[in-house]
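Reading a protein record of the kind used here takes only a little practice. Each token is a code from a learned vocabulary of local backbone shapes. With that in mind, consider the following protein and its fold in token form:
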Amino acid sequence: MMWDSAKVILGSASGELRLECRSKPFQCAGVPVVAFPDPRSANAEGIVAAGGDLHPESLLLAYRQGIFPWPVEGLPLLWFCPAERGLLQFSELHIPRSLARARRSTTLRFTIDAAFVDVIRACATSRRPGQEGTWITPAVISAYVRFHRLGYAHSVEAWQGERLVGGVYGVDVDGAFAAESMFYREPNASKLALLYLIDHLQSRGLDWLDIQVLTPHLARLGARTVTRDAFLEKLERTRARGLRLFE
């Protein structure tokens, strides 16, 4: 796509998703989105807009509005804010007995931001029941590694000796955290990494986690869905607190 300035505006008109840019030709790649539609205008599938790319400023703007990208092969980049949003309120966290025992007896070692690139690459290759392929494409990996280097994307690693056996990564924007993906190579490694992340976030004053889409695994830990409006209100209140989750 060719545009005239370094400004991409994503919007919707009459229910049709569109990408808008201004004036004479300019190469669009690497150009940040400067405006998204109101996430409350998402269609029935939760799609807010289509187009643009994964420029750090685009990601920052999106997460601040409760919007996240989800690449779909053969389509322009899709930006989502589903009608039902998954979240985990830490006061509602449920740790099953078996996981509690595994936590007490684990020999795993946990770190923060020690191997972000390895974690996101492992998440990309992790097989998930009922899911073909992965949304964590090479472009996503490149974009989130850049986002990590800018201080917005973070990881927790689980180590068995010097071997990376599990992890989770996500995005911190203005003191609100959105978990993106997990992986494991040893039993319970991803779950224990998530619990380590929750402990860390709680120590910094955060009391909930955006999980975007509810999964059976996270539901067993106490996660649930809330309406889009409730989520966006919660996100706004949390961002206003100005928490510093990672330093």
